[in-house]
Every structure is written in structure tokens, then in C-alpha cells.
């Protein structure tokens, strides 16, 4: 019984020391600070958060593509979300057969884009500058329709028009 009495007394002591008014003020202050942080971040988003991972110029170039667009498997979501145009491939695996994805990866890793562009009648590309396909396309005379720090949109130049 003495343990129960001591435990009950300790619990009552904690309740009386809880200071509900102070706790309510602290909670309200924390909620206000969190809400203010969200409002400030939405008004002026930090660049490091990459809330706009595709620049408006790149989005416009994607939308102005003179035909079907090529993009990498991992990057199709950006095109769908920001440019709202059909994509060659995206990371929703369900719509794509395994042999299509394997073909895409094989050609993207090697930079041999012509067979894919010919087979699917592709006329422009949305790629990072480090893509082997982008590097090969630039060598073959494709020109940069738009670029930002992460992306290139490539259109066929006069020399490339005879290719795909």
C-alpha cells in the first residue's frame, strides 16, 4: 500500500506542477512559429529545396517540341508534372514492358539514340547535360533549345534532321 500511496502522491504532485496555462502559451507559440515558417518558405522558396527543378524556359521548350519527346526513364515525372506533355518513359514501371525498359537503358548508357529515335519517331529530347545520349546528340548537330543548371532540351539542327 505504501508504494501505491507514494506513486499516487507523486502523480498528483506532477499534475499540480504541470502549469496548463504556460503549456498552452508554449504550444500556441510553436504553432505560430511553424505556420510563419511555412508561409515564408512558400513566399520565397529556398533554391536548395529544388521546389522548381525545371526552369520555365525548359518547360516552354518541352512544350514547343516539334514532335515526340525523348526523356530518360528517371526524368519522365518532371515532364509529366511540369510540362504536362506525353513522355517517352517514366518511372511508373507498370505501363512499360521489360524489353522496352531494357532497350531504353541500353541505348541511354551507350548514347546510341538513332535506333530508338527512328523506331519511335522521336524529334526532341529532355536530358541532363551529363547524359551519354545528350553528348552524342550535340556531337551530331542537335542544338540546345533551352537549358538550365540541370537540363537540356535538344531540337534537331540541320545536320541532325536527316538522322531520325
Structure description:
By secondary structure, the chain is of the alpha+beta class. The protein is 51% helix and 12% strand. The protein has seven helices and four strands, in the order αααβαααβαββ. A hairpin with a 4-residue loop joins β3 (143-147) and β4 (152-155). The longest helix is centred in the N-terminal third of the chain and has 24 residues, at 20-43. The radius of gyration is 28 Å and the shape is elongated. The N and C termini lie far apart (89 Å).
Helix content: 40-55%
Order of helices and strands: HHHEHHHEHEE
pLDDT below 50 for ≥5 consecutive residues: which ranges? Answer: none
- What would the principal axes of the Cα set say about the shape? elongated
What's the mean pLDDT score? Answer: 86
Q: Compute the separation of the termini in Å.
A: 89 Å
Q: Provide the gyration radius in Å.
A: 28 Å
Largest beta-sheet characterization: 4 strands, mixed
What is the number of E strands? 4
Main sheet: which strands, in order across? Answer: 1-2-4-3
Total of DSSP H or I helical runs spanning 4+ residues: 7
Into which percentage range does the β-strand content fall?
A: 5-15%
Structural class, from helix and strand content? alpha+beta
Amino acid at each position: 500500500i505504501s508504494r501505491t500511496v507514494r506513486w499516487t502522491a507523486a502523480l498528483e504532485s506532477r499534475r499540480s506542477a504541470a502549469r496548463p496555462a504556460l503549456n498552452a502559451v508554449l504550444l500556441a507559440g510553436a504553432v505560430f512559429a511553424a505556420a510563419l515558417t511555412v508561409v515564408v518558405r512558400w513566399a520565397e522558396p529556398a533554391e536548395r529545396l529544388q521546389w522548381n527543378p525545371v526552369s520555365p524556359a525548359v518547360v516552354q521548350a518541352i512544350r514547343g517540341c516539334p514532335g515526340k519527346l525523348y526523356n530518360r526513364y528517371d526524368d519522365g515525372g518532371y515532364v509529366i508534372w511540369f510540362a504536362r506533355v506525353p513522355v517517352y518513359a517514366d518511372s511508373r514501371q507498370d505501363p512499360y514492358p521489360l524489353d522496352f525498359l531494357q532497350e531504353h537503358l541500353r541505348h541511354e548508357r551507350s548514347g546510341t539514340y538513332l535506333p530508338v529515335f527512328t523506331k519511335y519517331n522521336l524529334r526532341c529530347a529532355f536530358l541532363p547535360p551529363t547524359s551519354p545520349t545528350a553528348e552524342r546528340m550535340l556531337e551530331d548537330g542537335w542544338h540546345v533549345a533551352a537549358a538550365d543548371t540541370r537540363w537540356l532540351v535538344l531540337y534537331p539542327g540541320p545536320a541532325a534532321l536527316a538522322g531520325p
